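[recover] target loaded
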C-alpha cells in the first residue's frame, strides 16, 4: 500500500514535530488532538520551527508554505478515517494509548499500520487492544523531532515482518535513521540505557555530592554528551522522566539495576579490555 497521508494523534511537542517532518517530506498530514487550543498550539509550533529553518537558510520560504499547506489540524477523530498510516503521540499513559488504538482500529482501513511513539511502554499490550496486532508497531522519535535523526522501530510479539519493513522505509523517507528493537522490552534501547543515568544524577544531587549545574557540566565535559541530565529532563519534560521511570520500576526486575552483566565479567576475566586498539566488544 502506498503511503500518501499520515495521521498523527497528539499535537504536543512530539506530535507537532512528527507532523512537521512528515509534511516537509511531502506527505499530507492530519494532526488531531482533543481540544482546539492544543491543535492551534501545535500548528504554531510547526510554523515557528519552519520559520527558524528559513532564518537559518535550511528551509526556503516556498518549502515552508508548502509544508504548512500539507498539515490539517483537527479535533475530529473521524478526519483520520482515510489516512494510510497512523502515528500516535499522546501522553505516556498506557490505558489512554490502548483506548486510542481501539478507536483507530475501528476507524481506519484494515491494512493501515498503527504506530505508537511511546518511549517505553509495551507494544504488545497496546496491540492487544486492536484486531490487527500484526499491524501495530513502535515508532519512537526523539525530541526535538525535526533535528534528531534516530527512530527506534520496535517489534511487538505479533508485529509482522512486513509491518516492520514498511515502518522502516517510512522512517527513511522522513529523513531519519531507524534501528530495530527486536524484543518488546521496557524502554527499548535508548531509554533503557538513559533512564538509570538520569535517576542516578538526581540521587547525586539529593545526596549533596554536587550541584545540578556541576553535574550537567561534568557529564557534558566528561562523557562528551551534548546536554547534561538536568538540561535534558527540562527539555523533554520532567513528567516524561517520572512516567517512564515508574513504568520501569513496575516492569523491570530490581536486581537488574546494579548487577555487573555476565558478558562484561567474562571479557574482563579473559583480559579482553578494549583500550581502543586491543580486543574488546568488537574484536574477538
Amino acid at each position: 500500500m502506498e503511503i500518501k497521508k499520515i495521521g498523527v494523534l497528539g499535537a504536543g511537542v512530539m506530535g507537532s514535530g512528527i507532523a512537521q517532518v512528515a509534511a516537509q517530506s511531502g506527505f499530507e498530514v492530519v494532526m488531531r488532538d482533543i481540544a482546539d487550543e492544543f491543535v492551534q498550539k501545535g500548528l504554531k509550533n510547526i510554523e515557528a520551527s519552519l520559520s527558524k529553518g528559513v532564518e537559518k537558510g535550511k528551509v526556503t520560504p516556498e518549502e515552508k508554505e508548502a509544508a504548512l499547506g500539507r498539515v490539517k489540524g483537527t479535533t475530529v477523530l473521524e478526519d483520520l478515517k482515510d489516512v494510510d498510516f497512523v502515528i500516535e503521540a499522546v501522553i505516556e499513559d498506557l490505558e489512554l494509548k490502548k483506548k486510542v488504538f481501539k478507536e483507530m482500529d475501528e476507524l481506519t482501513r484494515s491494512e493501515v499500520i498503527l504506530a505508537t511513539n511511546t518511549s517505553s511502554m509495551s507494544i504488545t499490550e497496546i496491540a492487544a487492544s486492536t484486531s490487527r496486532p500484526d499491524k501495530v508497531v513502535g515508532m519512537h522519535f526523539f525530541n526535538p523531532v525535526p533535528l534528531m535523526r534516530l527512530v527506534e522501530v520496535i517489534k511487538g510479539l505479533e508485529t509482522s515482518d512486513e509491518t516492520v519493513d514498511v515502518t522502516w522505509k517510512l522512517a527513511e523517507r522522513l529523513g531519519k535513521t531507524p534501528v530495530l528493537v527486536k524484543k518488546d522490552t521496557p524502554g527499548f534501547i535508548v531509554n533503557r540505557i538513559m533512564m538509570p543515568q538520569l535517576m542516578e544524577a538526581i540521587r547525586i544531587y539529593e545526596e549533596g555530592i554536587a550541584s545540578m549545574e556541576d553535574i550537567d557540566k561534568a557529564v557534558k565535559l566528561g562523557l562528551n554528551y551534548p546536554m547534561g541530565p538536568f538540561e535534558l529532563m527540562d527539555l523533554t519534560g520532567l513528567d516524561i522522566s517520572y512516567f517512564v521511570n515508574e513504568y520501569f520500576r513496575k516492569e523491570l526486575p530490581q536486581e537488574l539495576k546494579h548487577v555487573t552483566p555476565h558478558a562484561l565479567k567474562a571479557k574482563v576475566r579473559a583480559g579482553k579490555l578494549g583500550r581502543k586498539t586491543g580486543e574488546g566488544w568488537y574484536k574477538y
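[recover] notes: The chain has two domains: 5-181, 190-269.
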